[in-house]
Task: inverse folding
């Protein structure tokens, strides 16, 4: 049976492919501004981060604030790997391996932290994961092999927008298919009613950990992309502000909506840049727009309006317009 | 041998003995009622049977297997399914997905197969779809497969919860106040459904209920619980005329 879900996912996939083709045409024809090119990679990284955090927050229903922690662990692991093998392996092999290494290290941390932490619920989980992110940051700042407070230098700058698009595509493929499977259903059942989930034999601990590990993996991969985009990697970027920023993207896009996360990631990343013209009031405007969008997003009337906005009604409106003109 | 044998089941919360030396024997295919005034410990008995609480004393034997002190997941796998007094559906998920979740432990494929949509994924999903459809047809919910479960009317939500419990392929079905909040017509319909489930799936059912019409209408035997202890037990009509039971319900 083809259900609504799969159709929805196909639409999301096609949007990403069309976006990629547009970017490709713009850039290869030389029509893209430098600002536009510079924004593509950060936007892509935020999309991967937001979509993976959405799995934990929106689908599993667990509020975690340590996503930047997993990102930083992945970034350092991947960058150290790349520096180590810079002269031995060609970029085409080294970079994917670095991403896998970063992802695996991040998910290992996901397991280590997940086992004690996932027994907690709600606010407690949020605070403990927040603390975890801060611990990671201070440990990295004080270690020698990570470059300490001065940052890690010498990472090859391998990230470009094509690779980022490929990784986004893989992320979406894995996460959407996961959500469509029996494991995805189990994850969502824990969000909806954990007592009932347990009563029908769903292993809550296992699925919480599984979600945590998968989310951490992609956060780690996003970290590797981030580390290979800049010449210097410093631990201070991965503070709790970064975690909050990702959470804001997820909440704004709608918890449990992957397409929403993608759109919100684009908006939130591009907004500060777009407002650069009004330099003085940039952060103020940014905050006001955020508050406004959050209010709009949480209003039931707007939700009603959005539910009416589907493709059929859009096509209907267009058809009636054409008829009128004719 | 009885399907469910409960011996001297007890639990204490601090100084309160919520269930005290509770005994019950349920034969296969029986429709058994558990009644008692509010706060008598009926739901606590259910929570003990399904592993939500661990008993302080006593034993629970299901089909010859000792399941005392097991986790809810293990108990679900060994064949006890339940519904809840206040409906607990997966409210943001569709009717179909709710029932398919009940099939979670029967039609398995690995995470890997799910992500890459391997043949085992489509095979098992197809079987799940068929099984879920059959169950939903029994409950007359087959026209609302994609409806989000919280949008269903109350009576249908109750039915969906029973369908989900049956999907786990249980030996024993526990219904916690299935008629709560229903009007007389809905209750009458529910009685038919419960009887039908018992006959169609040759299911053993233990139910908690306050609606005496339902209890006298379908339960062959009942146990009466008061202050955590068993007050009376036996054939429904006999027990309900027991002076002790009448005193417990109506006072002297």
Result:
């Amino acid at each position: 049976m083809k259900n609504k879900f799969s159709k929805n996912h196909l639409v999301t996939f096609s949007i990403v492919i069309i976006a990629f083709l547009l970017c490709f045409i713009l850039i290869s024809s030389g029509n893209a501004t430098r600002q536009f090119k510079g924004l593509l990679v950060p936007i892509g990284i935020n999309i991967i981060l937001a979509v993976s955090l959405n799995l934990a927050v929106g689908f599993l229903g667990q509020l975690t604030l340590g996503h930047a922690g997993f990102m930083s662990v992945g970034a350092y692991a991947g960058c150290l790997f790349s520096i180590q093998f810079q002269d031995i392996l060609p970029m085409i092999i080294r970079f994917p391996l670095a991403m896998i290494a970063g992802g695996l290290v991040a998910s290992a941390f996901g397991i280590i932290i997940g086992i004690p932490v996932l027994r907690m619920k709600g606010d407690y989980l949020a605070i403990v994961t927040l603390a975890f992110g801060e611990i990671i940051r201070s440990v990295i700042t004080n270690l020698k092999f990570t470059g300490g407070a001065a940052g890690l230098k010498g990472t090859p700058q391998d990230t470009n927008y094509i690779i980022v698009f490929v990784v986004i595509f893989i992320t979406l493929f894995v996460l959407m298919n996961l959500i469509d499977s029996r494991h995805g259903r189990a994850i969502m059942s824990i969000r909806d009613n954990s007592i009932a989930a347990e009563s029908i034999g769903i292993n809550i601990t296992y699925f919480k950990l599984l979600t945590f590990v998968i989310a951490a993996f992609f956060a780690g991969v996003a970290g590797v992309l981030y580390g290979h985009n800049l010449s210097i990697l410093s631990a201070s970027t991965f503070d709790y502000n970064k975690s909050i920023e990702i959470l804001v993207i997820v909440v704004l896009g709608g918890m449990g909506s992957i397409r929403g996360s993608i759109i919100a990631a684009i908006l939130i990343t591009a907004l500060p840049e777009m407002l650069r013209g009004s330099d003085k009031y940039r952060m103020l405007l940014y905050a006001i727009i955020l508050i406004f969008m959050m209010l709009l997003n949480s209003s039931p009337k707007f939700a009603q309006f959005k539910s009416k906005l589907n493709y059929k009604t859009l096509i209907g409106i267009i058809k009636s317009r054409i008829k009128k003109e004719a | 041998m009885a399907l469910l044998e409960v011996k001297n089941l007890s639990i204490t919360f601090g100084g309160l003995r919520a269930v005290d030396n509770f005994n019950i024997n349920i034969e296969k295919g029986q429709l058994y009622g558990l009644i008692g005034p509010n706060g008598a410990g009926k739901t606590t008995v259910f929570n003990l049977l399904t592993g939500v609480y661990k008993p302080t004393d006593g034993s629970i034997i299901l089909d010859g297997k000792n399941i005392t002190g097991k986790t809810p997941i293990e108990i679900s796998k060994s064949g006890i399914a339940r519904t809840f007094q206040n409906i607990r559906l997966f409210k943001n998920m569709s009717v179909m997905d709710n029932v398919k979740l009940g099939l979670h432990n029967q039609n398995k494929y690995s995470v890997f197969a799910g992500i890459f949509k391997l043949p085992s994924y489509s095979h098992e999903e197809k079987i799940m779809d068929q099984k879920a459809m059959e169950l939903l047809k029994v409950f007359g919910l087959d026209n609302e497969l994609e409806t989000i479960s919280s949008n269903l009317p109350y009576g249908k939500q109750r039915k969906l919860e029973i369908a989900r419990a049956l999907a786990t392929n249980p030996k024993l079905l526990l219904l916690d106040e299935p008629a709560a909040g229903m009007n007389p017509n809905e209750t009458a319909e529910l009685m038919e459904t419960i009887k039908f489930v018992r006959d169609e799936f040759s299911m053993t059912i233990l139910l908690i209920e306050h609606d005496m019409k339902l209890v006298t209408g379908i339960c062959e035997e009942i146990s009466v619980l008061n202050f955590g202890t068993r007050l009376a037990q036996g054939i429904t009509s006999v027990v309900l005329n027991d002076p002790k039971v009448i005193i417990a319900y109506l006072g002297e």
About this structure: The longest strand of chain A covers residues 152-153.
